[in-house]
# Entry
Amino acid sequence: MSLLWLGSVAAVLFGGLVAVAIHAARPWLIAWLKQLPAPMRARLALALLSAPATVGIALSVLAVLPGVAASVSPAFDHCPAHGDHHLHLCLVHRPQTLAWGRLVSVLGLAGLAIGLRVAVSLARVIRGQRVVSALRRAARPSGRGYDVVAADVPLAVTAGVLRPRVYLTRGLLERVCRTTRAIVLAHEAAHQHRRDPATKLIGELLGALHWPHTRRALLEELSLACEQACDEAAAATVGDRTAVADALVKLERLIASDPPTPCVAVARADGSELASRVQALLAAPTAAPRLPSRWLALAIGFALAGVLITPIHHGTETLLGALFV
# Structure
C-alpha cells in the first residue's frame, strides 16, 4: 500500500515539474509550433497538453518498476545496498517510517487542485454534449454524408466523440453557393476523418493540469491547427487554395451576424481565427520535417527507459525520502 501512495505522490511531483517546465518554455514552444505544418502542430499541441499527466504517470511507473521487479526475483533486489536509512520504493523492503500526515496532505491538496480544474473542464464538456444531443435530435439525414438541421442560423459543425457526424443548418445550405458548400463539406469531412472533436475533448480535459495561461495558449494553438489542417484538406479536395480562403471570408460574414456558442466536442467550420487561416491558405504550404518512423521512435523510447530507469528510481527514492521520512 505504501508503494501505491508513494507512486501517486511521485506522479504528482513529476507532473508538476513537467507543467512548470512547459510553462517556462511556453513562448519558445508556441513560436516553434507555428513553424510546423498544421497536422503536425495539432499532434504536438495535444502532446504538450497531455504531457503533465502522461509524463508524470510514465516517470512514476519507471520509478516504482524496479521495486515491483524485486518481488518477482531476488536478482532485481538492490535495496540492501542502500541500508535501512534510505527510503525504498519496493514491495519487499517497505519503508520503516513515513510522515503519513505530510504525505496525505500533499496528495489531498494536489487532488483538490486537480479535481477543481478537471471539474471546470468537465462542466464545459457536459455543456458541449448537450449541444451535440440537441443537434442529433433536430437533425435529419440528407443521404449525402451529412445531416440537416432545420434552423435559420448558418452553421456547419462536426460533433460527437466516438462517432462524429457532420451537421449543416438549412440556413447555411440556402445561403451559400455550390462551390462554397463543397468546400464546407470537404472541411467538415476532414474534421470527421481526423476525429477532431475527440482531440479537442482530450486536450480540454488533460490540459486542466497546466498553468492557466499555458493551457489557454496550447488549446488555442490546437484549435487553430485543427482548423488549418482541415482547410488544407478542403483545398486539396477542390484543388484551389484561394477558393477555400474566399469561402472562409464568406462564412465569417454569414456567421458573424448570429454566432453560435462554441463548445467542446464540436469542430466548427466558420471564420474563427480567420486572419491566420486565410494567410496560411494564401501562402505556400509548409513542408513537413523528416521524422523517424513510429517504430523507430518507439524503440528509442524503450531504450531510453531502460537506460534511465535506475537513475529515475534512485532519484525518486531520494526525493521522496527527503520529503516524507
